[in-house]
Write a structure and sequence with these properties.
The structure is a homotetramer of 236-residue chains. Chain A has helices at residues 8-14, 17-22, 28-59, 62-69, 73-79, 83-106, 115-132, 135-140, 149-170, 182-205, 208-230. Chain A contains 11 helices and no strands. In chain A, helix 3 crosses helix 6. The interface between C and D is large, with 35 and 36 residues. Chain A binds a DNA duplex (21 and 21 nucleotides) through residues 1, 29-30, 32-34, 36-37, 40, 61-63, 71-79, 81-83.
Chain lengths: 236, 236, 236, 236
DNA sequence: GATGAATGAGGATTCATTCAT
DNA sequence: TATGAATGAATCCTCATTCAT
């Protein structure tokens, strides 16, 4: 009974250059229509971000999102088959935006920098992004609640993977505190992600000096936690 | 948006021994009724704990709790004015039970033990308690979600205070990494609490060796984070 | 997530005689409560019958049924988990009522009466019942429409079985027009049921003389259709 | 409750050859547009037939029809003012197609053939047509359900009229079982139509040998029902 | 003509909470 | 006290229909 599934952007993406060239003029109209749709989607995602931030994912209602976006419920459902889909799409958008804005920072060229620098290089963009897009944090909190979690876990898993990769690249196997196995490394990654999540909660809830203080604490925690895994103690 | 009006049963629960003693002889019947009431409350709170664990606080329905307790919804509302009140009372009970079971550990006699021992002494009971009463963690996760959070925050604030007290007692002001001000100390306490929360999520979600590994990681994180606040580096 | 399922009457049925005797007085109250429930159920079923008759099963809305019954939607859902359940229960009730009212007619003692008498004996009660309970016909018309049919088909299958049984008992194997195999007999039963269904549509839609005429036609059709299966032609 | 306003495309469909001829030369463009329109209508009706068959008339959604036809909902509404109109038009088309394909059979040249032959001559095309166009049967099942029925009843009435005509032509007034009045004849016609409808349900739902068996049963029923109205019993 | 976005009332269903018994 | 029926607003979602482009 549910057969809708937006393909919009896919169409556009699949549109061959020739075709595009041929119908330059004529396609203005369709494009405008699509543009309207895209705008609505953006509008809805923005609204959803707001509602998710204010009420959390679980308590957010599709009607509330539609209202916030200034459209009718029906319109929302023309673009998203259900609440989950909104969250998923929003997660994707945010992730992509994160990449575009601070992507370089993550796939570091210079992992051999001293850990404090490395932490700055990684955490600062992450924190900045989360402060600008607090919905991201809200989305990550669908997890743990059964029946809501599944889709969101893609988000989690994605982040988890990335953190794990970073760690794997940084860790000095010879270091005394380094995780010995892959499993152990995964545990460390989970811990790091968890620490970042809680810290972000504190960071997002505060401002100014306090926020700065929490940021500093986060860096301190991670620095002290990870340093023994990376720095080989000098032979005495 | 949701008008709370908690209390009521709290009084009853807080009823001091003295009061009870005063009405010893004549009040057998009423006392029995009160005893029955206590039993009902315990029954309901147990049921609530189960439901909160399974579905999370937000998704838990009062009807489900009543059903799990084997009573009618009306009966539930005879003891609790609303859903929040159940959570609050449950939080209180759990906290009290925690005290009774592992209370000594917290109000430490021996804060001058080396930090690893101290962490064991504090964390092991906490972890044990949370594993036995997973509802505790579930309850702490109403937070952050506006409209649900307020009442739960009493729980948070309580824990936060306690952690802060512990820290204050442990920290060596002369240590290089020690928080300089009360505010800073509060921040550290928040971080510690946050780290414990996330770690508990991982710990509760796993079993056996994995659980042990996460416990070890939690201790490692806190050890490394707090050590510089406590240990004065030896003058070289 | 759906755990409700009335058991009410089951409880009552399971209630042991001793218990019942012991609590004769005391059970008045509970019984009254149950009585209220039963009354509501009856009320809702009556309302449903009305709505099904007027709008057909598919177009009937639970809200409409509740409104017709003069209760809120929530009340309806306290007794029935969904629309289908109402139809099923109503079907059951009607069937039972049919049994109670005209049951003898069906399990005939005198199958050896001449066919016209037999048809009268069987059809008159059926027709009377359908005229008094036009919802029955409405219920049988959920069939054929995919996604609605399944539950109703129990009704169909039940009737089909009964008609088949009757036929099997009546048919004279030696008769020239008699169905040779069980499959053939089943086909005949399907036809007979179908003829009854369509005829009932006409009968229910008319009144007075016209209704009588349609009843006569129905009997004529069946008489002429079935007679050769029952009557052995006299050897000439 | 539902304001219908059918017609519109009917005119266009009924456009006589003369009219078309008049505007032969100059109206190439408009004609093309009209041709396109006809194609669209055909496309939509085909889609509607499919959807009606699969989901039944009531559950069919205009959006689903448009999707099946590969056009937008707006386009659908450019040709049909509402859902009912689609059904009506489809009914008309099917009827017309029936005429074109098997029309001769109906307006019989040889009503004086023996009844079995006559039934074959009439029913075989009807059955064939319904098997090829199962939507026809689906359409006839909007009836009986108030608020949906009215428009469809044109279909019914049409068929009813035709059956009545046939009967009137066949019946031997002198036959002992013949209907005495017009009203009676109308009743017989209704019965015959009803029998055909139910039988078609069984026929359409089965295949191969079973289908053949049901076809045979249908003929048997009608033969036995109608024979006494047509055959004058030999004077003894 | 065609598109597809937009509408908004309506449908089924749930749930915190109240009330009569 | 305990019950369970009752409430009604709110939830998610659908659909016939309209409208701007």
């Amino acid at each position: 009974m549910r057969e809708t599934s937006r393909t919009k952007s896919a169409d556009k993406a699949g549109e061959s250059i020739t075709e595009a060239a041929l119908s330059a003029a004529a396609e203005t109209a369709p494009r405008r229509r699509q543009a309207r749709g895209e705008r609505r989607i953006a509008q809805l995602l923005t609204a959803a971000a707001g509602v998710f931030c204010r009420t959390g994912y679980a308590a957010a209602s599709t009607n509330a999102i539609a209202r916030e976006a200034g459209v009718s419920p029906g319109t929302l459902y023309q673009f998203f088959p259900n609440k989950e889909a909104i969250a998923v799409e929003l997660g994707g958008h945010l992730l992509q935006r994160a990449h575009e804005a601070h992507g370089r920072a993550f796939l570091l060229e210079n992992l051999d920098r001293p850990l404090p620098d490395l932490l700055d290089a990684v955490l600062d963009p992450v924190i900045a992004f989360n402060c600008e897009n607090p919905a991201f944090w809200a989305l990550m909190h669908g997890s743990g609640i059964p029946g809501i979690a599944q889709e969101h876990d893609e988000l989690h898993v994605g982040l988890q993977t990335r953190v794990e990769g970073l760690l794997r690249a940084c860790v000095t196997p010879a270091a005394s505190g380094a995780p010995a196995t892959d499993t152990e490394l995964a545990h460390v990654a989970h811990m790091v992600l968890g620490i970042m999540k809680t810290s972000l909660e504190l960071i997002l809830a505060s401002e100014g000096a306090e926020r700065a203080a929490y940021i500093a604490q986060l860096k301190t925690v991670l620095l002290r936690y990870l340093d023994p895994m990376i720095t080989t103690p000098p032979p005495h």
